[in-house]
Design goal:
223 residues, 6-stranded mixed barrel, 4-stranded mixed β-sheet, elongated, ribosomal protein, Large ribosomal subunit protein bL25, RNA-binding, Ribosomal_bL25/Gln-tRNA_synth
């Protein structure tokens, strides 16, 4: 289970309605609501700068957070909506949903590339190219994996690839993309070798003899 669930700090918001929300924004806060989990909705405020930083990091709506609010037990939440100003495109409100341990959610799980030094294809001069650093999975909130493991020592030759079907998924996890066996990484030839091969191909093309008309071959009728 993932041990690096990030904390998201918030304050309980006193008062509800547009007036309380406007007052929160004047104080540099973004109002929000926490709902679900068989509990009453909890109005909150989150510091504007903290929320902006989280949004810029990306994947905000698919990241599981440990919400910490003074006077309340920590709870796992996931963002379900961020409302923005139509002109400035800045966050004005957010909705967070409480999660039970059995709740199924989509999350991007990072990939841990192991045994690069022992990779035969890399030892032969190949270059590792990473196509994906994370994979979106449908997982249970109470059993989220830290990473997906890729064993690079299985790549024997330059040109070998690892696709999603080569990765053993954690028990209970499902792929969100199921219609294709997408690539995770490959080992390609160094650019210098590629350039040499291209030069050889061009040189070989230049050496192909051309057929010229011999002087003693009579012209065709009408010439």
């Amino acid at each position: 289970m993932a041990g690096e669930i990030p904390d998201l700090h918030a304050q309980e918001r006193t008062g509800t309605g547009k007036g309380a929300a406007r007052a929160a924004r004047r104080e540099g806060m973004v109002p929000g609501i926490v709902f679900g989990g068989d509990k009453d909705p909890l109005p909150i405020n989150i510091q504007y700068n903290v929320l902006i930083k989280r949004l810029k990091q990306g994947r905000f709506k698919s990241t599981l957070f440990n919400l910490k609010v003074d006077g309340h037990e920590d709870v796992r939440v996931i963002c379900r909506d961020v409302q923005r100003d139509v002109v400035k495109d800045l966050p004005t409100h957010l909705d967070l949903m409480r999660l039970r341990r059995t709740t199924k959610i989509n999350l991007f799980i990072p990939i841990d590339f192991q045994n690069e030094e022992e990779c035969p294809a890399i030892r032969k001069g190949g270059v590792l190219t990473t196509i994906r650093n994370e994979v979106e999975l449908l997982v249970t909130a109470g059993d989220i994996p830290d990473t997906l493991t890729v064993d690079l020592s299985k790549l024997e030759n330059i040109g070998d690839t690892i696709t999603i079907s080569d990765i053993t998924l954690p028990e209970g996890a499902e792929l969100v993309i199921k219609d294709r066996d997408f690539m995770i990484c490959n080992v390609s030839a160094p650019s210098a070798l590629k350039s040499d091969a291209e030069d050889e191909d061009e040189a070989a093309a230049d050496e192909v003899p051309t057929i010229e008309q011999e002087d003693d071959i009579p012209p065709a009728d009408g010439e």
